[in-house]
Amino acid sequence: MKLAQLTYALTAGFPADERFALCAQMKRAAVSIPSNIAEGAARGSKKEFAHFLTVSRGSLSELDTQITLARDLGFTADTQAIEDQVDRVFRLINGLVSSVRAGHETNPQ
């Protein structure tokens, strides 16, 4: 959720002509990350949860790429805080995927 908030704050300073392009794409990816985690957790099966976690990680990879592109295009200069949060979320999701998959192998549902 914090990453989505940081994304909205970062994109608020983008040029107006990017509002419906890169800006919107970044917001969609950022919202997709916690949304897929929530949906997967609600599914009730470890296999489905692991699947939605990997979808979430894919959205995180998209956002990571888009942040780099925004910086390289000069839309923002300071991306350190959001890049740090992206790294943190990658670690958290990877740990959760490993944990869920390990639990799935020993206790399938």
Describe the structure.
The chain starts with a helix and ends with a helix. It is built from four helices and no strands. It is 78% helix and 0% strand. The longest helix has 27 residues. The radius of gyration is 15 Å and the shape is elongated. It has a single domain, classed as 23S rRNA-intervening sequence (de novo design (two linked rop proteins)). The chain is an all-alpha fold and 109 residues long. 21% of the residues are buried.
Strand content: under 5%
Look at the structure and name the CATH superfamily. 23S rRNA-intervening sequence
- Largest beta-sheet characterization: none
Number of helices: 4
Give the % helix.
Answer: over 70%
Mean pLDDT: 93
Q: Which key terms come to mind for this protein?
A:
109 residues; mainly alpha; de novo design (two linked rop proteins); 4 helices; 78% helix; Four helix bundle protein; 23S_rRNA-intervening_sequence; 23S_rRNA_IVS_sf
What's this, in brief?
The chain has 109 residues and is mainly α. It is built from four helices and no strands.
